[in-house]
Amino acid sequence: MPVAGIIAEYNPFHNGHLYQIKAVKEAMPDTPIVVAMSGNFLQRGEPACLDKWTRAKLALQNGADLVVEMPVSACVQPADRFAFNGVQILASLGVSDLFFGAEHAEYDFAKFARLVKEAHGEFKTYNESYAATFQKAVTEKIGHPVDSPNDLLGLAYAKANLNLGEPLKLHPIQRKQAGYHDLILKKGTIASASAIRSHYAKGERATLTQYLPQESAQALRTQKLLYWDDFFPYLKYKLLASSPEELQNIYGMAEGIEYRLKDQLERAKPTVTFDEWLKAVKTKRFTYTRLSRLACAILLNLTPKEVAEYNEQPYLRILGFDQAGQEVLRQAKKTSTCELIAKVSQDDKNKAYRVDYRAGKIYQLQNMFEQDLKRAPIRIFS
């Protein structure tokens, strides 16, 4: 049977996400929708504002049929790797069609993927990032830049799909009203997740209701949104207590950046914020996003070995489903190449799932709710 898929973060779930789900239902009526969603730490290297269970429930209440967690090792990654893992997870669940937002939905992303399949950034000099050099290669191959955030991710999905043998049909959806990085609440009912988080942090919460489904608005009234500064004290301790040699064992550490990470923290005032420290560390080679992902890896003590283990044997956590989603799972259990984890056992937390269990416990330091043990998938049946 056809199955629609979305790769998402829902940080938090807002009207733009609801618009996307409605567009999927319009394009493929009566087709189950599977969401591969980042867990408590996200692709750009930041903690989720609401925990994975809350965000999964919001997705299910607003039209998703099955929500699964993309493991930490799969999602705290550069766009190409994140996209590959997301496409792989959806394909393993029997998804046939991938829907994603794009600033230019008219682009033929599958064609672009074939054009840039062999494109790589030069990355030989120390005065620019890999992302910048790769963008130059993409522009040369395609004939124009593909540099808007969602277009770039769409291209990454298309490349991943191509590399996996094109198991999914691609369906770009035109992004409406708000840009990915917009921090302004524009007229209408759609705002970016960045703008919603920014205004919430400023205490301007009453203005957010029009941009959120009812269930999300309720979640923002009853739960505290989390930001990097909530976890920064733990990161500072880890950096100050670790030697440069110990930090070299963290996934993504390269080019001696561990010395700069420590040095800028030791020079900083005790009141330094995460963003202030990140700006002090930044270089032309290390973008904010790359450094933020690295900070996340340090906080979670993520090692290259653990990421390699996930790559060798992918798995996913089932967060919730309805009746249609249950049928997708029933079929997937027969054919999936990914291990499907419904409940985390003592064995899981010490073996395959240990990175995500550790991440959940660290997130729980601020969230205060158990994230894994004794948590069963959410079931929403009519």
UniProtKB/TrEMBL annotation:
<dbReference type="InterPro" id="IPR014729">
    <property type="entry name" value="Rossmann-like_a/b/a_fold"/>
</dbReference>
<dbReference type="Pfam" id="PF05636">
    <property type="entry name" value="HIGH_NTase1"/>
</dbReference>
<keyword id="KW-0067">ATP-binding</keyword>
<feature type="binding site">
    <location>
        <begin position="7"/>
        <end position="20"/>
    </location>
    <ligand>
        <name>ATP</name>
    </ligand>
</feature>
<keyword id="KW-0819">tRNA processing</keyword>
<comment type="function">
    <text>Catalyzes the formation of N(4)-acetylcytidine (ac(4)C) at the wobble position of elongator tRNA(Met), using acetate and ATP as substrates. First activates an acetate ion to form acetyladenylate (Ac-AMP) and then transfers the acetyl group to tRNA to form ac(4)C34.</text>
</comment>
<dbReference type="GO" id="GO:0005737">
    <property type="term" value="C:cytoplasm"/>
</dbReference>
<feature type="binding site">
    <location>
        <position position="175"/>
    </location>
    <ligand>
        <name>ATP</name>
    </ligand>
</feature>
<dbReference type="GO" id="GO:0000049">
    <property type="term" value="F:tRNA binding"/>
</dbReference>
<keyword id="KW-0547">Nucleotide-binding</keyword>
<feature type="binding site">
    <location>
        <position position="150"/>
    </location>
    <ligand>
        <name>ATP</name>
    </ligand>
</feature>
<protein>
    <recommendedName>
        <fullName>tRNA(Met) cytidine acetate ligase</fullName>
        <ecNumber>6.3.4.-</ecNumber>
    </recommendedName>
</protein>
<dbReference type="GO" id="GO:0006400">
    <property type="term" value="P:tRNA modification"/>
</dbReference>
<dbReference type="GO" id="GO:0016879">
    <property type="term" value="F:ligase activity, forming carbon-nitrogen bonds"/>
</dbReference>
<keyword id="KW-0820">tRNA-binding</keyword>
<comment type="similarity">
    <text>Belongs to the TmcAL family.</text>
</comment>
<dbReference type="GO" id="GO:0005524">
    <property type="term" value="F:ATP binding"/>
</dbReference>
<keyword id="KW-0694">RNA-binding</keyword>
<feature type="binding site">
    <location>
        <position position="101"/>
    </location>
    <ligand>
        <name>ATP</name>
    </ligand>
</feature>
<keyword id="KW-0436">Ligase</keyword>
<keyword id="KW-0963">Cytoplasm</keyword>
<dbReference type="InterPro" id="IPR008513">
    <property type="entry name" value="tRNA(Met)_cyd_acetate_ligase"/>
</dbReference>
